[in-house]
Amino acid sequence: MAIHESGQMYLETIYILSKTKSLVRAIDVGEHLGYSKPSVSRALSILKKDGYVLVDSDGAIKLTKTGLEIAQTMYTRHTVLSEMLMRLGVDEKTATEDACRIEHVISAASFSAIQQHVKQSLGKKVEE
Asked: How far apart are CA 83 and CA 75, in angstroms?
């Protein structure tokens, strides 16, 4: 099942938060994204039903294997695209905002080409 951009954003946010928090809860996701509690609750319900997240009895949110794969893909795209735009001279705020929009619509083939170009031009490993 294809996941919508908003679902991708939620998964990426859960992934980012899980890198610094031992437990990720709905309130953390809402605060990070600036969304209301009912919006987060509805989104998490859909993500849970579709098999992207698990929510335990304490309210801790965990990504499933599929959810983690999507979250890591979005995070990598965001990181690489932000880096590329900043290296082109775009200020950090604009670069990260634009990368956030681009990461959801760019094809795998185009992103792979950009990632290879960035790797070659920087002569170092780029987030994978």
From this structure: 12
Give me the pLDDT at residue 127, please.
53
Torsion of CA 92, 93, 94, 98, to 10 degrees: 100
DSSP letter string over 21-32?
A: -SS--HHHHHHH
Structural contact between residues 33 and 9, judged by C-beta atoms closer than 8 angstroms: yes
Q: What is the pLDDT of residues 49-77, one digit of tens each?
A: 999 999 999 999 999 999 999 999 999 99
How many CA atoms lie within 13 Å of 113's alpha carbon, on the beta-carbon side?
4
The CA angle 102-108-112, to the nearest 5 degrees, is 95
Which residue, 86, 110, 108, is CA-closest to 97?
86
